[in-house]
Specification:
Layout: H1 2-25, E1 30-34, E2 38-42, E3 45-49, H2 51-61, E4 65-73, H3 76-87, E5 95-98, E6 104-110, E7 116-120, H4 133-141, E8 144-148, H5 155-167, E9 173-177, H6 187-196, E10 199-203, H7 206-213, H8 221-231, E11 236-240, E12 246-250, E13 254-257, H9 270-283, H10 288-303, H11 316-322
Parallel strand pairs: 1-4, 1-8, 2-6, 4-5, 8-9, 9-10, 10-11
Antiparallel strand pairs: 2-3, 6-7, 11-12, 12-13
Amino acid sequence: MRASRFSASLFVTATVRRFAEHFMLSKKHIVVGLGELLWDLLPAGKQLGGAPANFAYITSLLGDEGIPASRLGEDALGAEAIRRLGGLALPTEFIQKDADHPTGTVKVEVDGTGQPRFEISESVAWDFLDWTPQWQKLAQQADAVCYGSLAQRSERSHATIRSFLLASHPSAARVFDVNFRQHFYTTQVFAESMKLATIIKLNHEELPRIMRLFELEHRSEEDSARRLLTLYELKLVCVTRGDGGSILVSVDESNQHPGFKVKVADTVGAGDAFTAALVHGYLRGTSLAQVNETANRVGAWVASQSGATPPLKPGGLAQTLAEIG
């Protein structure tokens, strides 16, 4: 038992050192989470959520400049959201204010396995994203932007997100996170979003649905990923498998990771955390194998904690992630 504990200690120490060296030497990139900012109304209480905030928070922990771009109501929940973003050390200058529509909320119920079920309020502030000179400048500066289908359920926000993507630099990573949330999606939104993307992320349940939606045969995850890669001239397709890991597929190679087994508190925000780590590695030209391992590790850590923006353990991010797996 002594030798086993000693070996485990050496492994954790080496992992911490590797993470720390990677983060210290990394160039800081401007990475934007674009879309819905809202409050998740969880059984244990409300927590700030929505992909842009979740994604930007983990992006910042990884060492890049994570910027949420969204819209809040001029109400108590909106003011509290701004305070919460400040507490997470996230910038708020790209959060628009809306005097006519309330801050978004989502009622979240979590089942026995930690899987969430969402009831999303409609006609809220993030349904009315404005295309502004400030956002145009941000789009032009961004090294990466992550966007989803949910935030495009209204014509106005759909048009704004499209304008943002078209204004981004040709070399920027445009990451489309597929979401089948309630009835808030259309074939047109999926098709346009994939045409503008360089990376697509979706899970093992969403992939066959996307293939059926576009009348394409689904034979296997890798085969379908390669079909999408070719049809939409993508750089990378990522298929997550819950606690079963993920597969990354590029033009030249593919890599599978079995995932990390953790005691799940809830999975809210775990996918956004995975995406943040995916983008972090992609921007640095990291190997698919290393990107896959880090993204699974980060996603597993968030799933093991309550809520989408958990605090780090003493010792920082490197020590926190080294304890996973």
